[in-house]
Amino acid sequence: MKLSAYHKAQGHQVMWWNPLFYFDVVYKSRVFTDTYSKDKITVTNAGTVIKGGTGYGPGPDLPDEIEHTYPDYSLYPQYSETAYGFLSRGCPRGCGFCIVGGKEGRRSRKVADLSEFWRGQREIKLMDANLLACPDHESLLLQLADSRALVDFSQGLDIRLITPDNVALLNRVRTKAVHFAWDNPNEDLTGYFQRFVEMTAIKNFRNRRVYVLTNYGSTHEQDLYRVETLRRMGFDPFVMIYEKPTAPPITRCLQQWVNNKRVFHVVENFYDFEPVKKLRNSSMETR
Question: Closest Cα to residue 140, out of 107, 162, 109, 100?
């Protein structure tokens, strides 16, 4: 959207790529690597093809004059009432499964004010990797609160950085959803989550969501413990599978059970979930 806005400002004609036309420049974006997004399209009808996105590797950042351009939201008219953007970039955690540290740096820093990508839209989807680690996060939370838009902290807030002061600011934000993560099964985060529940104004558990990373050095028992502990504390877990093609069947069943919320709240015991029963019966027959 920023690339489109920038080129339109230069008087260039911008459209989605079409194999029937010739283009001076084609931008080709890819978010994931081959595991999730095969690079199947070969562009032969362009003078220059510029590839970008984490699926192609870290790559260069957008030039400042493009990065700080107001996005061309007309590309996605179906999302006309939602603003997307970053207020901060980077994360100090350096988790082995995450590309953010290598791509954006091991320090969270402010990169924009809200006005750079929001002009009155009803909703804001914030894509910051670790907003609360940013030294300017309190002033940025105030900008979000003053917008009166519904804010979705889509990539997750760091539960370990929750304080009475920043929760008080979060309570002033019209929140569509907050996302946290419990990625490391060897790190006990229950105290942090309990403290947040005591301080937050978000009372609907469906809006208190927690990503649970699996298939990254954890056992099934550790995965299930995190899911059940979060539910008991009043959070809505969401199972993420690292390198899904290598995940064991029991982990896939866990994801199906947890992420299908209708099933998750009706079938309270994981081992009563029908696919799990079939898996266990099949395993017993094999033995």
Answer: 109
